[in-house]
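seq as requested:
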Amino acid sequence: MTLRNTLKQPFLNAIAMLPDRAQRAMLTPRMRRICIHLPVLRAVYSGCLRRHPIDLQYGTDTSGLVDALVLQRDERLVHELNPYMGSQPTIIRRALDTLGDIGGYTFVDIGCGKGRPLIVASEYPFAEVLGYDISSDLVETANANAAAIARRFPARPPIRAVNANVANLATLSGKLVVFMFNPFGPDLMTTLLRNLEAGLASGAIQHLFIVYDIPVCGRVFDDSTYLRRWFATMFPYDPHELGFGPQVEDGVVIWQSVRGARPDAFTTRNRRITTKDRFSAVVE
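struct tokens:
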């Protein structure tokens, strides 16, 4: 590991701890013109290092940017992983609102990181809210956030995060909503799909929605005979979320299982996914 990689994450952590006023100063046009050309400082302009409004609201810690080398030091896996950053709550809510009645379903976030989608999902009447992540440190943070939400909202469904490699994930069961915010590349995505297909084939999974925010590997799911499209669109960030993420809108595609399928509700569900790079995808 190079010295640059060794120092990168502590430096990003230090930037993230700066007061919001100092971070806003770095976003002024003059500072941006200078700093955006410095490799490590470019991360500042993703918006992910600023403390997100949801953390200010709940006193949680879901903000920041965590490099893939920190998530996993196994070189066989690290090239497949994307850095941790939190998805936008408004986009998660809008996606979940398309599903209709989710009573009795379990929400599962694959690559949950610090657990921001878990917090948002707990606003809905899921039977349980689960997260899986390969980083034990991020899982620890997610469970601390879960405890804070449970204290504040004891009537919400329970939240739990588990340290796990998706390649070794136990077969899931019941009615599921699987959420992902572009956590990793096509090899691990195919492994995840095979696990879900096995659960559907055995009957362990009764019905399944896959909600994919920034669907870079969407073709993996489009090619599955066990799934069909439910929904596809570009969702804009809410105005108060602008500047707290790298974009102003995200593509979201949702699939449901053929097993237990609900009647199609959205005529634009088969919109095309165009992938720009491993971090961005547009739903056209």
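Residues 89-283 form a domain with the Rossmann fold fold (CATH 3.40.50.150).
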